[in-house]
Design a protein that fits this description.
Helices cover 25% and strands 16% of the residues. It is built from three helices and five strands; from the N terminus they run αβββαββα. It binds zinc ion.
């Protein structure tokens, strides 16, 4: 993965703790998982992103396609287990008009019978509730104390 940090990029800023709108549930040298503020189906909505700037799926190095999908799968399983979802919808957009943040991200949306999906969440969830959900998801992901961990050789 190209080891690029783009200040001002929403997810680069989240990975490095320059903003805290979306509490982190997981972070290693390759991938980070956040709890999203606008939750279309209730608690457990997660975003899986590379820990370094990659604009979209076509820009992801081929050797990281497998690991990225494994992280999305792992998050999907954790979301189901931790938030009582009966399933998930995993989706990903590339370029306009679908991609709102130009940093590759997979949406992991918890699904429950009668949840009304697809729909947009109009109101952001309070940060205290997001933090609570991030703690639960971190435990489900086996990462109870998530923190940024830069790749070896970088400061
Ligand atoms: Zn970025």
């Amino acid at each position: 993965m190209s080891e690029i940090d783009v200040p001002g990029c929403h997810f680069c800023d989240e990975v490095r703790g320059r903003t805290t709108e979306a509490p982190r549930a997981f972070c290693d040298e390759s991938f980070s998982v956040f709890v999203g503020r606008y939750q279309p189906t209730g608690p457990g909505y997660a975003l899986v992103v590379p820990s370094w700037h990659v604009e979209d799926l076509p820009a992801l190095p081929e050797d990281l396609c497998g690991p990225m999908l494994r992280m999305a799968r792992r998050t999907s399983v954790a979301v189901q287990q931790a938030f009582g979802a009966t399933g998930t919808t995993v989706l990903q957009n590339n370029g306009k008009p679908g991609q709102s943040v130009p940093h590759l991200h997979f949406h992991v949306i918890p699904r429950r019978p009668g949840d009304g999906y697809p729909r947009r969440a109009e109101t952001p969830v309070h940060v205290d509730e997001l933090t609570r959900q991030a703690t639960i998801l971190a435990t489900a992901l086996g990462n109870p104390a998530p923190r940024p961990r830069p790749r070896a050789g970088l400061s």
